[in-house]
Structure prediction request, 275 residues.
Amino acid sequence: MVLIKIRAKLIAIANYKLLIINFQLSFSIYNYQFSINMSNPYFRFKQFTVFHDKCAMKVGTDGVLLGAWTSVENAAEVLDVGTGTGLIALMVAQRNPQARVVAIDVDEHAVEQAKENIGNSPFSDRIGIELVAFRQFVQDSSKRFDLIVSNPPYFSDSLLPPDKGRARARHSVFLTLDGLLLSARGCLKNHGTLSLVLPYDKRGELDCLCEKHMFYMKRKTIVYPLPDIEPKRLLVELTMQPTDHTETSSLIIENSRHQYTEDFSDLVSSFYIHL
Prediction:
């Protein structure tokens, strides 16, 4: 009888662990974040390696999407707002050999990590890193940019995460979407582009803020994690020049778990080692 009870308890524990694993996998698919082994302190791309052990926000799909999707061909001067690990700055520098990038962040650990990642990359001579808030940067600098990229904070209605670094990186008490667009107007060239990745449910707020700050959407891509799941992200390019047409497309990340679509593979093939 004792052995039967022990066996039943072990089975229950095993089932519980399996339930947790399945939940984690489902959560990962729902948010379409990379399955990164967090015990691994780095993520290796084809031309550079990104360490994220010191940075609150790890390498994830949002940053890779924005870095690979953004139009960089005519961007000589680029600003990366909230650079984190420096991932997007590195991707932009790889895609445009003529681009000079300024990467800023308010988190000193992120800036330290970004300096290391960029310093060890082939693009270190074209990327500068500064520890400064976006608003302060605009006030202190007269420089204007062809392109501003940002993977901004978006948990404006949530409780602050317990980790202060993560809170700073991902909570909009530090940088609201409203503040981002306002500051972007202060350092964007007349024909420049503001490129963002946002949760899909922020599209209504974005539309209102674009009207408020006189931005116009020239390009957008609706991102789906899987074919049968609602869209989770929105990639947008905004300009201060009026436009009567928005180039619109959609992108599905995976056909099934760990089976990337051809469109996504084509988008990131210059960066992923195994594509």
Observations:
- Residues 2-6, 9-37, 155-161, 167-173 have pLDDT under 50 and may be disordered.
